[in-house]
Amino acid sequence: MSGKKGQWSSKLGFILASAGAAIGLGAIWKLPYVTGQSGGGAFFLIFVLFTLLIGLPMLLSEYVLGRGTQSEAITAYKKIAPSKPGWAWIGRMGVLGCFLLLTFYSVVGGWIFIYSGLGVAGAVIDPAIDSAELFGKIIGTPWITLVGLALFTLTNVLIISLGVQNGIEKANKWMMPLLFIMFIVLVMRAVTLDGAMEGVKFFLWPDFSNITGKALLEALGQSFFGLAVGFSCLVTYSSYLKKDVSLPNSAGSVVLLTVLVSFLAGLAIFPVVFAFDLEPAAGPGLLFMVLPTAFSQMPFGEVFLAMFLLLFLFATLTSSFSLYEIIVAAMMENSQRSRPMWTLLLGVVVFIAAIPAALSSSVLSDVTIFEKSIFDATDFLVSNLMLPLGNLFIAIFIAYVVDKEIVKRELLMGSKMGQGYYSTYRMLMLVIVPIVILVVFINMLLQY
Q1: Over its length of 448 residues, how does the chain's per-residue pLDDT go in tens digits?
Q2: Strands 372-373 and 368-369: what pairing?
Q3: Fewest CB atoms within 10 Å of the CB: 41, 64, 77, 272?
Q4: Which ranges does the record mark as transmembrane (predicted)?
């Protein structure tokens, strides 16, 4: 394949890029604190079940659409069901969702950039500085948040402008192995702390007494957020995939890596939290306020904290690459302008659009939307409304609109899987997946 259309150089490159898209803020930042707030092991178990029964079929569906059409998100829906062009709005909603997601995701990425620099310099752990005070200062100082936002945006622009193979694939081939190595080192240190086993028990021992309707909603949302499905990012990624690659094997590998990273994140965080008698339900500030306090109390704490922050930065970047790519690929379709030009333009627009969310903890703290800050309102719109709706529409489209023979052919092409695998997938997509998404979504609306 030549011209503007890129292609992964290998199956491994695609799997690492897909896993990188999935493994980000969801697995390392959001899952630990949501698990802590929802009672631990039971929530994690439900999250894994949702990931296998709902997330995996949705991941396969996006792969079928992308690899089957060899097109970016918007065009893919037109090509696979040419007589029903209105369904292309799923792709358009995905592009819009990715853009809106970037306007607050990049803000958190900027915080992590600042923290990573301070961590490497040994300036996060300081007896004279309270962790909560440091976090408040970083998110509450306009120029600091804007510098972080600019650094995070610039890094994405540089990588995406290099293309699929030379940019995204190469970055993921370096970042993902390093992420796993650092995780394993951190887990080994965490579980050997005195009192760490209480944290392991909290994370892995199911206690269903704390599971509520809200917890089920969080678990399903975490599954979608954790696999990066619902916004058609992986439609675009899989459009660069060769026809001889097994979609079931690729999707299974991505799900396995995502669950593994989520598992390692829990083992790296909860033993530390319990070893130092901290609060596991600390909320979004868990990584920024609680963990620095814990690391400060252990030998070589500065080194381990710096390693954790770099790991966090790598994971956040690999996820943001997929958000940028779906938008850039859509803009490049039928355009004579170059990838670097479109990427730079997108970076500038994202930076400007993210400024209100970046300043929502400082000069715009009094501005609220439905009693939420600009940052929280954007997060709610994207994560709680657009993401489940995107998954619901994709599920209906793939199950009831696309010719089932096309789906079957694409799903099994290059794979050793047979009719039984396809029949299971089809049953899940026809009944289980849309019903579960709809029930959980309606339950969420009733709560608000």
Answers
A1: 334 456 776 777 777 777 777 676 667 777 777 788 777 888 899 999 999 999 999 999 999 999 999 998 899 999 999 999 899 999 999 999 999 999 988 999 999 899 888 888 888 877 667 777 888 889 999 999 999 999 999 999 999 998 877 777 787 788 778 878 877 888 888 888 888 899 999 898 888 877 777 778 778 878 887 788 888 888 988 988 888 889 999 999 889 988 988 888 888 888 888 888 877 766 556 677 767 877 777 778 888 888 878 878 888 888 888 889 889 988 888 777 888 999 999 999 999 999 999 999 999 999 999 889 999 899 888 887 898 899 999 999 999 999 999 999 999 998 888 889 999 999 999 999 999 888 878 877 776 6
A2: antiparallel
A3: 41
A4: 12-29, 41-65, 86-105, 141-162, 174-194, 215-240, 252-274, 304-330, 342-360, 380-402, 423-446
Structure tokens at 211: 């599971």
Helix (H, G, I), strand (E, B) or coil at 7: coil
Q: How far apart are the first and last CA of the chain?
A: 48
Residue 194, classed as helix, strand or coil, is coil
CB 199 within 8 A of CB 273: yes
State the Cα torsion 19-285-437-318 to the nearest 10°: -20
Domain residue ranges in the chain: 11-447
Amino acid at 146: L
Amino acid at 104: F
| 368: helix, strand or coil | strand
* 369 sits in which H/E element: strand 368-369
In CATH terms, the fold of domain 11-447 is Hydantoin permease (1.10.4160)
Distance (Å, whole) CA 69 – CA 238: 9
| Contact of 226 with 34, CB cutoff 8 Å | no
Closest-CA residue to 433 (of 62, 96, 76, 44): 62
Contact 149, 274 (CB under 8 A): no
